[in-house]
Amino acid sequence: MSSSHVKVHVMRHGEVENPERIVYGRLPEYHLSALGQKMVRMSAEEFKRMSDEGANIVYLAMSPLTRTRESAAPITELLGLEGHPDERVIEADNHFEGLHVNREEILKNPRHWPHLLNPLRPSWGEPFTHQAHRMAEAIKDAGAQALARGGSGAEAIVVSHQLPIWMARRSAEGKFLPHDPRTRQCNLASITTFEFDDLWSPQRPKISYKEPAAPLYSGVIQLPGS
């Protein structure tokens, strides 16, 4: 094992209370629903199980938004880790933030048309390349923090949002960033793990994925900007 072997577990937040189906993006004060709280508890319990079985989880970072702070709370409770806010793992910026999710209404309004011209960038929000870059920096830094605290083999947790996590994964796997949103493998409270044999090497990390909260997914509506 390399002296800089490290794992960074990137967890998505749980379900948000959003009965009006707003694209909430970076808007403040969108809280986890009761079901979302159960989801993140299940993921925190998975981290606790890993820790009890020998995983050296020593660092916790999170997006500064309400829903990610609430998602990190049970990890702090069960593992005793202080949460460190990191702006680099925040939700992607989105022109449609604050609007109802209604495709027909969006297409009817001419003011939205310039933001729909280029889905490969995308033209409606933060470029995919920018998301991938900031996430890669934050993941590497979380790994460095884990190494500083726990040495080789240490592990970190980062709590973030679906699209930035998916961009980080596609970039790490060397895949094109433009994609069909329906193909994202990044469900609520899921854990995408980046394992670096050598954190400072240009070698791509190994990627693994798990869904501790899968039993709670039935009937859940997932929206963009989450």
Model description:
GO terms for molecular function: phosphatase activity. InterPro entries: His_Pase_superF_clade-1, His_PPase_superfam, PGM_Phosphatase. This is Histidine phosphatase family protein. It comes from Rothia amarae. The chain has 226 residues and is of the alpha/beta class. The protein contains 5 helices and 6 strands; from the N terminus they run βαβαβααβαββ. Strands 3-2-4-1-5-6 form a 6-stranded mixed β-sheet, with helices on both faces. Strand 2, helix 2 and strand 3 form a beta-alpha-beta unit.
How is the topology of this model organized?
Layout: E1 6-12, H1 34-52, E2 56-62, H2 66-79, E3 83-85, H3 103-108, H4 128-150, E4 154-160, H5 162-172, E5 191-196, E6 206-210
Parallel strand pairs: 1-4, 2-3, 2-4
Antiparallel strand pairs: 1-5, 5-6
Brief summary:
One of its GO terms (molecular function) is phosphatase activity. This is Histidine phosphatase family protein. The chain is α/β, with parallel strands linked by helices and 226 residues long.
